[in-house]
Design a protein that fits this description.
Strand content: 15-25%
Number of helices: 10
Largest sheet: 12 strands, mixed
Distance between the termini: 67 Å
Helix content: 25-40%
Shape: elongated
Order of helices and strands: HHHEEHEHEHEEEEHEHEEEHHEE
């Protein structure tokens, strides 16, 4: 049988994407060249692996079994290459991830830099997408995994929480509110307030949280993306409420983040992949590095939030309100407002007074 590894990779890519056009684009070859590889493989095996129509490409029964074994073969080969130690610097490959735009500026770059230094031969593609588009991309196998919100449980997907972050006030260091240790949402009404549009999941989260508040801020300026909002704050156009992941963790000359209270608003973000799927070794390494970075950030958040607790400023129920987990308080840094409402991205819950 005369076929090679490139032919197997071509078949697996077509099977994954269900399209010759998409597979050729991912492999950076022409569509005729891709078709020749598939024809060569089918001729060598003396069987049809793919059923072609004008609209899509599907697998034959034999093609399904061959795809399973071929995928496993490629995974094992990649794992062998990754296990050679110092030779990993020469490993080639590709990883495509979907990432929420708000995480691209400050959270993701250090992780990608570290990953590139370890595996310089691997090409990483980052597609900035909102939650809905990210989930669709994962299901259609257009990306290896996504870093985003999972707004509702989905049996087709697996979700690994990375951060339970809160919404904070973004302003310049010279702004009057920058001197405060915390700011109530009602305090924002006195200043030029900006927000994302109502089409944003972040806006929906905040509107839901503030639905029972009479004195709520009204935006005079709206943007589609949070990253644009942060840029406008940095330029001195106004102030904004943004997820903490959008803000720098270290000192910044033009940006300050202040905890927002009354109510505290938080959300869960994490890694989304197809349930039961096996990532390529290259994708798995990046997946693991993002999880490892989340552990580091989580410890920093806990240290920062326990400082007020040591001074007696936080109640026990503030610790318990982070989904009933007394050992993690990174989702909520202040006691909930009476009667104790903690707002999360998927539902509202009342924080228990019990520890």
């Amino acid at each position: 049988m005369k076929f090679d590894l490139a032919d197997i990779k071509a078949f697996v890519t077509v099977a994954k994407l269900g399209s010759f056009t998409a597979a050729a684009a991912e492999m950076h070859i022409s569509q005729p060249a891709l078709s020749r590889r598939i024809d060569k493989l089918e001729a060598a095996l003396n069987t049809r692996l793919l059923k072609r129509t004008t609209r899509r490409v599907s697998l034959t029964l034999i093609g399904m079994e061959f795809n399973r074994r071929a995928t496993e073969l490629l995974h094992n080969l990649d794992e062998a290459l990754f296990g050679i130690g110092d030779l990993t610097k020469h490993t080639n490959g590709e990883v495509t991830i979907s990432c929420m735009p708000s995480a691209i500026r400050f959270f993701l770059p250090p992780i990608l830099r570290s990953y590139h230094l370890r595996y310089p031969g691997i090409v990483v593609r980052v597609i900035d997408q909102g939650a809905t588009d990210a989930i669709s991309a994962v299901k259609r196998q257009e990306v290896d995994f996504a870093f985003n919100l999972l707004e509702a449980p989905d049996r087709q997907l697996s979700f690994a929480r990375v951060l339970h972050e809160r919404v904070v006030l973004a302003c310049q260091p010279t702004h009057p509110l920058a001197r405060k240790s915390k700011v109530a949402w009602s305090d924002l009404t006195k200043y030029d307030y900006m927000s994302v549009t109502r089409a944003s999941s972040n806006r929906f989260l905040m509107d839901l949280a503030l639905s029972s508040i009479e004195n709520k801020p009204q935006p005079f300026f709206e943007t589609q993306h949070v990253s644009t909002l942060v840029a406008l704050v940095e330029a001195g156009v106004g102030i904004a409420a943004v997820p903490s992941i959008c803000m720098p963790s270290a000192a910044h000359p033009n940006l300050v983040s202040i905890p927002l209270v009354e109510p505290v608003v938080s959300r869960k973000i994490g890694l989304i992949r197809r349930a039961g799927s096996k990532l390529s070794p290259a994708a798995q390494k990046l997946y693991d590095e993002i999880l490892a970075a989340s552990d580091t950030k989580g410890r920093s958040d806990i240290k920062a939030l326990t400082a007020p607790l040591e001074k007696g400023r936080l109640s026990k129920r503030a610790i318990a309100c982070s989904y009933g987990s007394p050992d993690r308080i990174d989702g909520c840094g202040e006691p909930p407002t009476a009667p104790g409402t903690c707002v999360d991205s998927r539902y509202l819950e009342e924080a228990s007074d019990e520890t």
